[in-house]
Amino acid sequence: MAWRYAFSISGVLIPISLLYTYYRYKFGYFERRGIPHIKADINIFLKQPTKDLLQSAYNTFRNSTPIAGVFLSTTPVLVILDLELVKRVLVDDFASFSDRLNLENSSDLLHATDNKQWQAIRRKLTPCFWSAKMNLMFANVCKAAENFLDNSEEFLKSVEVDFKPLCTRYAANALMRCVFGLELDNADESTMTLHLRIKDLLKRECEARLSANDNNMLPGVCCIKRTHAQTVSAESFSVELETLLFAAVEERSEGSPQHSDLIQILINLLAAEQSDSAVVNRRECVFQAIHLVTQSLSTLLSGFAHSANILMHCLNELARNDEVQRALRQNITSVLQSYAQDFSYEAMGHMHYLDQVVAEALRKHPVAEALSRLSLHDYHIPGTALTIERNTCVLVPVQAIHYDPNIYPVPAQFDPSRFDAATVMARHTCAYLPFDDGPRNCMGKRLSKMLIKVALVKLLHVRRLKEIARVERESVNEENFRMDTNEFRIKLQSI
To answer: Binding of heme: at which residues (predicted)?
Structure first.
């Protein structure tokens, strides 16, 4: 009988010892390579805020080493702490870190892992977001903002306003107009049903992305995916939308007024590429343009949803900071007076304090906690004995940098003066990373900022925002305010 007991005990102890040996070896990854790191503990297997882990690494090692190691779940990840090294990874030595992490089941070409695939789609879409093209889309954004203002009218006499559904509607409406050129206002009976179906699809996806922003207690692997600020659309959604869009765009006759939406701009660019041919196949250009847009739909949807999210934070910060709101309204009023009350793309470009307010909102409430890159080969860090090995995930801790008191004194304070020209020039170029940096930065950043600015101008020109006493927020740490506030309730007043 003794041998049976021995056999049973060994059957339990051997697997446990093997498992212990495996994890001990795995968690010794950084120690074997001489890299300073946050040691893994039992909490590594539990859901924990990755921002806290990155912040801990940043605070502990930022003055002693350019990189530090952390474990997201059981995956070893390097956190870049030195701003010069951040610049090397994102810009100077981009060829060594050109890939992002693979997002499972992602059909979004703009976030494809393969650099060649990404370059091909980006080369076609980038001209659509140049400043001249933004000028073309400006009227569409203004129309969406006017609807946003009209929708807020019903709350003028309310005790409080929840801006979350208003901003979600604004994002969906702007997406319809700017990207797909679809309007509900001027749609006839034959197209109204089609346009409503598309708007319903877009609004549902925007709401899903805004809801995803509220969930910050993520396991390590999921949080790696979240650093791209992506929520992957279902394949069926893309197919359905592509079919509906093709039907809608095909209704545009040759003699109809030229549209200024993203799809039309892309159709024109694709047609220009075929200008050497005897005949330009318009139908083929339409098909290619719609296919390119729907293949990049996850990025576009997330971009508009995040713009709505930043707009909510802007409104919230302005309601809490009367002096800033007063200075911004004065800036808007003075510029509009100089342009005879004509709000144009050029006029918006001269609202410099508006630029500072939006920039500070993006600093204090960054869309992504971190930027991720994948090393394509062994990379020796200049001036050190440290090496980033091939296929290692590296993270740039955006939120930790934006809240570094050595870079931004009193970081929890909302202070747009941080972004006046002289102060910006004195800072490191990688001390501010709301839209990534380098060749893989966000190409839609002009459109995103335009969405926020236009809505602010339209609202603040006729309304005043007033903060409602915070009842359930008293225990919220100021630095974590962005992460814990899910509702934005502000009182609207007439000027």
So the answer is: 442
CB neighbours (10 Å) of residue 469?
A: 6
Q: Is 442 annotated as a binding residue?
A: yes
Q: Is residue 273 part of a domain?
A: yes
The answer to whether residue 9 sits within a structural domain is no
pLDDT tens column, 266-291: 888 888 777 655 556 777 888 888 88
Highest-confidence range of 19-23, 144-148, 206-210, by mean pLDDT?
144-148
Backbone angles phi, psi at 194, to 5 degrees: -60, -45
d(CA 363, CA 158): 31
Q: Which domain holds residue 210?
A: 27-494
pLDDT tens string 365-411: 998 889 989 899 999 999 889 999 998 999 999 999 999 999 999 99
- Grouping H, G, I as helix, E, B as strand and the rest as coil, residue 140 is helix
**What stretches of 188-308 adopt beta strand conformation (E)?**
none
What is the pLDDT averaged over residues 230-235?
45
Query: Residue 7: inside a domain, yes or no?
Result: no
Report whether pLDDT(311) > 80: yes
Question: Are 355 and 464 within 8 A, CB to CB?
Answer: no
Determine the Cα–Cα distance for residues 455 and 328; give it in Å rounded to an integer: 13
Q: Which of 170, 175, 184, 297 is nearest to 242 (CA)?
A: 297
Question: Which of these, 328, 318, 310, 406, lies nearest to 364 by C-alpha position?
Answer: 310
**CATH number, domain at 160?**
1.10.630.10
Is residue 18, in this structure, part of any structural domain at all? no
Q: Which residues pair with 152 in a beta bridge?
A: none
Residue 316: which of 154, 133, 172, 456 has the closest Cα? Answer: 456
CA dist., res. 84 & res. 91, Å (int): 10
Handedness of CA 284, 287, 289, 291 (dihedral sign): negative
How far apart CA 194 and CA 258 sit, in angstroms, is 21
Total residues found in the chain within this entry: 495
Q: Which two tokens stand for residue 283?
A: 């139908």
Which amino acid, residue 82? D
* Averaged pLDDT score across all residues of the chain: 78
Distance from C-alpha of 297 to C-alpha of 310, rounded to nearest angstrom: 20
Residue type, 67: I
Q: What is the per-residue pLDDT for 217?
A: 34
DSSP secondary structure of 350-407: T-HHHHHHHHHHHHHS-S-S-EEEE-SS-EEPTTSS-EE-TT-EEEE-HHHHHT-TTT
Chain-centre distance of CA 289, in angstroms?
23
Q: Phi/psi at 279 (nearest 5 deg)?
A: -130, 130
**Strands 75-80, 393-396: parallel, antiparallel or unpaired by DSSP?**
parallel
What strands lie across the sheet with 393-396, from one edge to the other?
Answer: 67-72, 75-80, 393-396, 371-374
